[in-house]
Amino acid sequence: MDKQDNNRLKIEAAFKQILEAIGEDPQREGVVNTPARVARMYDELFWGMKVDPRKYLDVSFTEYHDELVLVKDIPIYSMCEHHFLPFYGVAHIAYIPKGGKVVGISKLARVAEAYARRPQLQERLTSQIADCIYETLEPMGVGVVIQAEHMCMTMRGIKKPGSLTVTSAVRGIFETRPQTRAELLTLILK
Ligand SMILES: Nc1nc2c(ncn2[C@@H]2O[C@H](COP(=O)(O)OP(=O)(O)OP(=O)(O)O)[C@@H](O)[C@H]2O)c(=O)[nH]1
Ligand SMILES: [Zn+2]
Fold it and tell me: Please, what sign has the CA dihedral across residues 171, 46, 113, 186?
C-alpha cells in the first residue's frame, strides 16, 4: 500500500468516528461510503500540501515590460485552519517585472491555487503568494489582495453572512512608494 492509500485510510477511519460521535449510524446506506468520499475530497482540497508553488515560476521568459502586470478576480477556495470550513473569494495579484523577467499569467493563478489548497489563514495565504513571487521572480515589486468570505463567520459562530475580509501583502516598490501602492489598490478595488 502506498503512502497516499495509507493516508486515505487514516482519514476514512477518523471520519467514521466523527459520524459515530455526532450520533450517525456509519452503516446507514446514505453515509456508508461517506468516509471514503471525504478522504478522496481531502486529497483534492489539500493537494497544495504536497507541492512547492515556486516551481510554477521556474519558467520565466524575457519581455521588456517593466511596468504593472495585474491579474484580477482570480477565484480562490481555501480551508480555514481553525474550523476546517471553507473561505472563498477572489485574489488579485500584481507585480512589476525587473530586467524583463516575466512569467505566463496563468502561473500567478497557479501559485495562488497551490497555497489555497492547504489549511490556511487568509493573511498567510496572502503573504505566501507575495513572497513566492517576490523571491522567485525578483521583480521591482509585488502586491497581493484577497477578498474572501469565511464560512466559519457566516454559517456558525457570529453568523455574519456577506461580511468580507480583505487582506493585502505588498513587497518591494509597493512597500517603499506609497503612491505606487495607492495606484495599485485603486486599480484593484475599483
Ligand atoms: N485572522 C484570521 N482569523 C481567522 C481566519 N479564519 C478564521 N479566523 C478566526 O479564527 C478565530 C478562532 O477563534 P477561537 O476563539 O479560537 O475559535 P471560536 O471559539 O470558534 O471563535 P468564533 O468564531 O468567534 O466562535 C475566529 O475569530 C475566526 O473568525 C483567518 O483567515 N484569519
Ligand atoms: Zn474558521
Answer: negative
CATH of region 54-189? 3.30.1130.10
Which atom number of ligand 1 is nearest to the Cα of residue 148?
Answer: 31
pLDDT per residue over 124-162, tens digit each?
Answer: 999 999 999 999 999 999 999 999 999 999 999 999 999
Which of 62-66, 82-86, 142-146 comes out lowest in average pLDDT?
62-66
**Closest C-alpha to ligand 1, atom 2:** 121
Q: Is 160 helix (H, G, I), strand (E, B) or coil?
A: coil
Query: Residue 65 carries which DSSP code?
Result: -
Instruction: Please determine, for residue 60, whether its predicted confidence score (pLDDT) is greater than 90.
Output: no
Give the residue extent of every domain in the chain: 3-45, 54-189
Taking 90 as the threshold, does the pLDDT of residue 28 lie above it? yes
Atom of ligand 1 nearest to the CA of 121: 31
Counting ligand 1 atoms within 8 A of each CB, the residue from 82, 115, 118 with the most, and so the one to mutate, is 82
Could you name the CATH architecture of 3-45? Answer: Orthogonal Bundle (1.10)
- Write the ipTM: 0.93
Higher pLDDT, 4 or 8: 8
Query: Whole-angstrom Cα distance, residue 58 to residue 73?
Result: 24
Cα distance between residue 152 and residue 120, in whole Å:
13
Q: What is the DSSP letter of 53?
A: G
